[in-house]
Amino acid sequence: MTEVPSAAELQVILKEADLLAGPEQIEAALQRLTVEIRERLADQVPVVYCIMNGGLVMAGQLLPRLDFPLEVGYMHATRYRGETTGSSELQWQAPPSVPMEGRSVLILDDIFDEGYTLAAVVAACRAQGATEVMTAVLTNKIHDRKAPGFDVDFVGLEVEDRYVFGFGMDYRGFWRNAPGIYAVKGL
Ligand SMILES: O=P(O)(O)OC[C@H]1O[C@H](OP(=O)(O)OP(=O)(O)O)[C@H](O)[C@@H]1O
Ligand SMILES: Nc1nc2[nH]cnc2c(=O)[nH]1
Questions:
Q1: pTM for this predicted structure
Q2: Is the CB of 78 inside a 6 Å radius of any atom of ligand 1?
């Protein structure tokens, strides 16, 4: 069994981390995303999918601002599984929960890092018959290791090329509940 770090150890991780975006910057990013998404999808009655687990906080904060009719679904695709580097294999832990044939689909996730997760999720939605698939992320990590031929449609904030946590994103499974976006010391 993997040992759970103590509360004191996890407090040190947060204390030593660099704050990249605080609640005010995140609020402004969510507001911008709301306006852009409304413009594109307000009359489409889309299925809005939360990608578990990382997308949970962003979806929870964004959905009540989308003041137009939509359905909510979830799916869990994971490639990092508590590590700070991604595996080449994407694991599906929960398949899409709402049928999407003939529908507009909006995918919500916490971070567009290398992009292999979202590229695979979008391909799966198309394979299931979605007519249009859009992606919105809270953060886009800036580097030149992106999956070729794929981009996201809506971005809240840009973050530097470090391992980040908070607002849905984990550090080894913890601190998804941190109210800002932080970069781990030394990573
Ligand atoms: O752009 P990529 O390099 O593919 O990485 C981005 C993905 O990594 C994280 O998920 P993770 O695999 O950690 O699963 P989790 O959401 O359950 O933590 C995050 O939530 C994104 O879905
Ligand atoms: N928590 C977290 N998950 C990720 N998945 C891909 N990149 C990251 C990152 O920087 N932080």
A1: 0.95
A2: yes
Domains parsed from the chain with CATH numbers: 7-183 (3.40.50.2020)
User: How high is the ipTM of this complex?
Assistant: 0.97
Q: Which residues approach ligand 2 with their CB closer than 6 A?
A: 80, 111, 113, 163-165, 169-170
Three-class DSSP labels, the chain:
CCCCCCHHHHHHHHHHCEEEECHHHHHHHHHHHHHHHHHHHCCCCCEEEEEECCHHHHHHHHHHHCCCCCEEEEEEEECCCCCCCCCCCCEEEECCCCCCCCCEEEEEEEEECCCHHHHHHHHHHHHCCCCEEEEEEEEEECCCCCCCCCCCCEEEEEECCCCEEECCECECCECCCCCCEEECCCC
Question: What does the pLDDT look like over 96-119, one tens digit per residue?
Answer: 888 899 999 999 999 999 999 999
At residue 92's C-alpha, the angle toward residues 116 and 149, to 5°, is: 20
Rounded Cα–Cα distance for residues 153 and 60 (Å): 19
